[in-house]
TrEMBL record:
Cytochrome oxidase subunit II copper A binding domain sequence ranges: 135-252
Highest taxon above the source species: Bacteria
Gene name of this polypeptide: ctaC
Residue ranges of every copy of the Cytochrome c domain listed in the record: 261-352
Keywords attached to this entry: Copper, Electron transport, Heme, Iron, Membrane, Metal-binding, Oxidoreductase, Respiratory chain, Translocase, Transmembrane, Transmembrane helix, Transport
Catalytic reaction(s) noted: 4 Fe(II)-[cytochrome c] + O2 + 8 H(+)(in) = 4 Fe(III)-[cytochrome c] + 2 H2O + 4 H(+)(out)
Function: Subunits I and II form the functional core of the enzyme complex. Electrons originating in cytochrome c are transferred via heme a and Cu(A) to the binuclear center formed by heme a3 and Cu(B).
GO BP term, pick one: ATP synthesis coupled electron transport
Membrane-spanning intervals of the chain: 56-81, 102-122
Cofactors: Cu cation
Protein name: Cytochrome c oxidase subunit 2
Length: 352
């Protein structure tokens, strides 16, 4: 036995190091694909001042930690290659016990970095937490429920669910949107990454969040605080549109529900069930507040808080058995017959 490793064999430590590098590479690839991929929830494709501040902070932190990573890993790899044990060299390397300049450097440098980052974060917080509400700002009361969002426009007399409509601004008028965030059950978190940062929605407390955008479009978000079984499917959509389109939408939403005699059977069935105790339909006896306002249900693009497209088939499936689409949701199945389902869905389809 010579004590030498046979040629061609890889030490266990080397294999583990290789696996670690591979996992790190996959982790960086996943991180990059999650952050920089195109889509409505991309955190770097921002369209609002608060989100712009967060993006700047993100890039700054990424650059700082990236530079630290490269310096540390570069020094580590250099030392591994430069001072590795070579074949035939049995001498003991020099033993160095401490270095005051190095110890001062690795204490002062991180302290300065943390201090600078603290100042930058503080500036970003001040920018995001805008307290002066412009006279033309749009105020919306946002209420978190398990597991859907309620949007109430107090100045317009409009209440809707899961789809927040806002007007865009221009170079002369920012047209800020201020949200009063409330919860009726558990802690939620309102997050639309292209418009602003996360803000907790806490029972018994009103938190304030604002944003403003000049770009029309659909911006997606979701609850960012675990709130129960369907937390991952507590989605929301922000529709930014021109002031003229927003005014038309608001005027339509303020109207009472359509009373079509052709669907009287479905309307009567709705009023005879517990539906009217949970939902509101303006112009009818239904005035429940536990579930979404259905006055203009068919004007929305999705059902079940963004889970499925709002079309007749999905609407029928949702009414028939909500648990098949959103397991754990608080809406029960009434075990309706096929004829009753047809009548009820026909009535709901008139609620534009």
């Amino acid at each position: 036995m010579t004590g030498q490793r046979p040629k061609g064999l890889i030490p266990v430590q080397a294999k583990r190091h290789g696996r670690g590098i591979l996992l790190l590479a996959f982790g960086l690839l996943f991180f990059a694909s999650s952050v920089f991929a195109a889509g409505e929830t991309n955190i770097v494709q921002t369209v609002s001042p608060p989100a712009d501040s967060i993006k700047f902070l993100f890039y700054l932190l990424l650059a700082v930690v990236g530079a630290i990573f490269l310096i540390v890993e570069g020094a580590l790899i250099y030392c591994m290659v430069r001072f590795r044990k070579r074949e035939g060299d049995e001498s003991e390397p020099p033993q160095i016990y401490g270095s005051k300049p190095v110890e001062i450097a690795w204490t002062v440098a991180p302290a300065l970095i943390v201090f600078v980052l603290f100042l930058v974060v503080l500036r970003s917080i001040v920018q995001i937490r805008k307290v002066d509400v412009p006279e033309d700002a749009l105020r919306v009361v946002v209420t978190g429920h398990q597991w859907w969002w309620e949007f109430h426009y107090p100045e317009l007399g409009v209440t809707t669910a899961n789809e927040l409509h806002v007007p865009i601004g221009d170079d002369e008028n920012e047209r800020a949107v201020f949200l009063d965030l409330q919860s009726v059950d558990v802690i939620h978190s309102f997050w639309v990454p292209q418009l602003s940062g996360k803000m907790d929605v806490v029972p018994g407390r009103t938190n304030l969040l604002w944003f403003a955008t000049k770009q029309p479009g659909l911006y997606r978000g979701q609850c960012a605080e675990y709130c129960g079984t369907q937390h991952a499917n507590m989605l929301l959509r922000v529709v930014a549109e021109s002031p003229e389109e927003f005014e038309r939408w608001a005027a339509q939403q303020a109207k009472p529900a359509v009373d079509d005699p052709k669907v009287a059977a479905g309307r009567q069935l709705f009023m005879s069930l517990a539906c009217m105790n949970c939902h509101t339909i303006k112009g009818t006896p239904a005035n429940g507040t536990f579930a979404p306002d259905l006055t203009h249900l068919m004007s929305r693009q999705t059902l079940a808080s963004g889970m499925v497209e709002n079309n007749p088939k999905n609407l029928r499936d949702w009414v028939d058995n909500p648990q098949s689409i959103k397991p754990g949701c608080l809406m029960p199945s009434f075990q309706l017959s096929s004829k009753q389902l047809d009548d009820l869905v026909a009535y709901l389809e008139t609620l534009h």
